[in-house]
């Protein structure tokens, strides 16, 4: 039986900080996305 690997990987990243309200802010680009848990940034690459 063919099984497909999940191509998504979880990597601990830098350039973010905790906002203290359950969200984190990405500091990598000028959009400074504020992300809830499991939310993706505007770039659709970074995810909390
Ligand atoms: S667009 Fe992506 S890299 Fe830029 S701030 Fe948002 S999550 Fe971070």
Give the tags.
binds iron/sulfur cluster; mainly beta; 3-stranded antiparallel sheet; 48 residues; globular
Structure summary:
The chain has 48 residues and is mostly beta strands. The chain is built from no helices and 3 strands. It has one domain.
Bound molecules: iron/sulfur cluster
Can you write the helix and strand succession as a string?
Answer: EEE
Strand order of the largest sheet: 1-2-3
Total helical elements: 0
Helicity range: under 10%
Give the strand content.
Answer: 15-25%
* Total discrete domains: 1
Task: Please describe the biggest sheet, giving its number of strands, its sense, and whether it closes into a barrel.
Answer: 3 strands, antiparallel
Output mean pLDDT.
87
The value of Rg in angstroms is 13 Å
Which blocks of ≥5 consecutive residues have pLDDT under 50? Answer: none
Explain this structure to me?
This protein has 48 residues and is an all-beta fold. The chain has one domain. The chain contains no helices and 3 strands. Strands 1-2-3 form a 3-stranded antiparallel beta sheet, with no helix packed on it. Strand 1 (16-18) and strand 2 form a beta hairpin. It is globular and about 35 Å long. The N and C termini lie far apart (33 Å). The model has no long low-confidence stretch (mean pLDDT 87). Bound molecules: iron/sulfur cluster (SF4). Residues 26, 28-29, 31-33, 41-43, 45-46 line the site of iron/sulfur cluster.
């Amino acid at each position: 039986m063919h099984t497909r690997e999940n191509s998504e990987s979880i990597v601990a990243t830098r350039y973010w900080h905790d906002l203290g309200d359950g969200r984190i802010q990405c500091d990598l680009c000028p959009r400074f996305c504020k992300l809830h848990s499991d939310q993706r940034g505007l770039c659709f690459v970074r995810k909390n």
